[in-house]
Amino acid sequence: NFFEEEFRCPCCGQVVVSMALVQGLQALRDLVKQETRTEHRLMVTSGYRCPAHNASSTVKGAKNSEHLYGRAVDCYAVDGHGKVLNHQYLAYLASRIPVFVRGGIAAYANHIHVDVRGRKARWGLPWKKTA
């Protein structure tokens, strides 16, 4: 349920994406559907970032961001009526996906960050166990 275009760097057009990340995102999408009983699409707002884009004044990404290696995305979930799922709840659901348990998860005001770095990292807003 994902397209290569969703992971493309807006700066240079290059695509680098980990299959473990894509599989984790699919598992998250499936879990959202199961838990909410509603079909949601995960909207990727930032996938791969080339070094220039990551360092740009609009992104201000971390020096060694997982986005640089195609191992991270920023995303949110929206249903067919345009209703956005609570980001703190989405982060909680991501914490139930095995590949993200061993990766990074953060909740922000307008999206979540998930990555497959191979070690646990958590930051951002507190998570909520209900939508």
Give a short summary of the structure.
The protein has 131 residues and is an alpha+beta fold. It contains 4 helices and 5 strands.
Describe this structure in words.
The protein is α+β, with helices and mostly antiparallel strands and 131 residues long. The chain has four helices and five strands. A five-stranded mixed sheet has the order 1-2-4-3-5. Strand 3 and strand 4 form a beta hairpin. The longest helix is centred in the first third of the chain and has 18 residues, at 19-36.
- In order across it, which strands form the biggest sheet? 1-2-4-3-5
Q: Measured on Cα atoms, how large is the radius of gyration?
A: 14 Å
Q: Could you give the distance between the termini?
A: 23 Å
Q: How many individual helices? A: 4
Count of DSSP strands: 5
- % residues in beta strands: 15-25%
Defining traits:
single chain, 131 residues, alpha+beta, five-stranded mixed β-sheet, 4 helices, 21% strand
